[in-house]
Design brief:
By secondary structure, this protein is an alpha/beta fold. Helix content is 43%, strand content 23%.
Length: 284
């Protein structure tokens, strides 16, 4: 009976999710040539191609997709067994996605307590808007992601966040301009739509003076006094001011939910999700 090398299988899952041997080599700590040879060995073992090689990276063949689904189950069972038998806690790699403002505002403390309990777990984190995180989940390049949702009745919502207008001062001079300059995220994001809808509801003229998915960029423009921005309340830095609803229309509340790449997540992914769900509602 042939025995499958689990180290090869684990590296295969990283390459499959990143879509790049170069990126995988940085995460794993092995050279690209070593990983390429390992994948050749794995393909020789199954006697079938697992990847389509392209100029921009690699993508899975149909056989590779099938192997990835089975590899996730096998490695999850393997890691869970070792943790249970050895009493050493969880171990392995978990890929988490999160919008940038959440990652700065309240996620550090939540993650810190998880990794204190499970020091052998490795984290790969991707910060991006919800609209970019969901495709990564579909391609299984992430295991789970915190996402923003407009549907507050969604049963998966674990925390609510208010959108607020922020400026250099509580009553910035630019409020008197005929067309209010705004600094917003990309047009597909919830904060962009919320801001535009609020302006149009009261027939207030506005212009998008700065559009970027960079939280640092939005905050910098707000600090300069050049435009008004929209942030979640928790993400507002201490040197910026929330503008009163008496001066600008009320913005909506959104929900934060967890979404998963797999319908049956591994023990590690479930443990991290349970930890986030338990602590996130009260995180500051």
């Amino acid at each position: 009976m042939r025995n499958l090398d689990l180290a090869l299988l684990r590296n295969f899952t990283v390459i499959a999710r990143t879509g790049s041997i170069s990126l995988a080599s940085q995460q794993i700590g092995r050279t690209q040539s070593t990983l390429s040879m390992q994948m050749q060995r794995l393909e020789a073992f199954f006697e079938q191609a697992l990847f389509h090689r392209t100029g921009s990276g690699v993508r899975l063949t149909a056989v590779g997709e099938k192997l990835l689904a089975n590899a996730d189950r096998l490695l999850a069972g393997h890691d869970e067994m070792l943790a249970e038998m050895g009493g050493t806690g969880l171990n392995g790699l978990v890929a988490l996605g999160c919008p940038e403002d959440y990652s700065i505002a309240f996620l550090p403390g939540v993650l810190e307590s998880f990794f204190e309990r499970h020091p052998d777990v490795e984290l790969r984190m991707v910060c991006a808007p919800t609209t970019e995180l969901r495709p990564l989940l579909l391609r299984r390049q992430l295991d789970l992601a915190l996402v923003s949702v407009a549907d507050m009745a969604n049963g998966e919502v674990i925390r609510n966040e208010d959108f607020v207008w922020v400026g250099k001062t509580a009553e910035p001079a630019i409020l008197s301009r005929a067309a209010l300059p705004l600094a917003l995220s990309a047009p597909t994001t919830l904060d962009y739509r919320a801001a535009c809808d609020a302006m149009e509801t009261i027939n207030r003229r506005y212009r998008v003076a700065f559009a970027s998915n960079s939280l640092a960029g939005l905050i910098a423009i707000a600090r300069s006094g050049h435009a008004i921005s929209v942030l979640t309340r928790t993400a507002v830095p201490s040197d910026l001011h929330i503008i009163s609803a008496e001066l600008l229309p009320m913005l909506p509340t959104i929900g934060i939910a967890l979404e998963f790449a797999e319908p049956r997540p591994s023990a590690l992914v479930k443990a991290l999700a349970a930890h986030i769900s338990a602590l996130l509602p009260d995180a500051q």
